[in-house]
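User: Could you check the structure of this?
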Amino acid sequence: MENDIIELIKKCRSSSFNRENYQVNIDLTTFVDSMLLHTWYNKDDRKIQRIDAGDKKLNKEWAERVTPDFQRANNKWSKAMKTRFLENLLSGVKVELMFFRLSVQDDAQIIDGLQRTTAILDFFNGKIKPFGYSYLELKSRLKQFANHNLIIKIYTFSSWEEVGRFYIDMNEGITHSKKDIQKAKDWFLAEHNIEL
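Assistant: Sure, the predicted structure tokens are below.
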């Protein structure tokens, strides 16, 4: 039995999850300012200085840029679920969002938290109103709500296989349907010849 436990410990230590990451705890305003309002380049290499609330085209470009094609569909949460999530976030619930990149020069993309990130973006765009208030109505007072309740983790992987293994291991048999998992497996096989 002791040898079995030692082997189990070795297996767990070598899992796709057991890796270093950069983590920061921030408030909603800082997340919006740093993730949604930062300077970036769109797909045509046109520099975007700022994404303003209401500029749905640029917000859509940002969302597409940070959402990898292997992710499941971004329609799992209803408007009521998104609203309740934002109410919880403003009330102080700790929320974790995970991003990844393949090198420190790459833009980070979502590996876990697509529905949560979309809910925040929908709040920013005025599509949902937690407690009956829009982002523009709360913008100047957001820091007065619960602070530092967003936990952002950024993983740097050395290969697409590591990305795929992490994503599949984290979601298979837990949060994603068999169809969602198969979509990811098919994408990794078609795009990178990686069988997961």
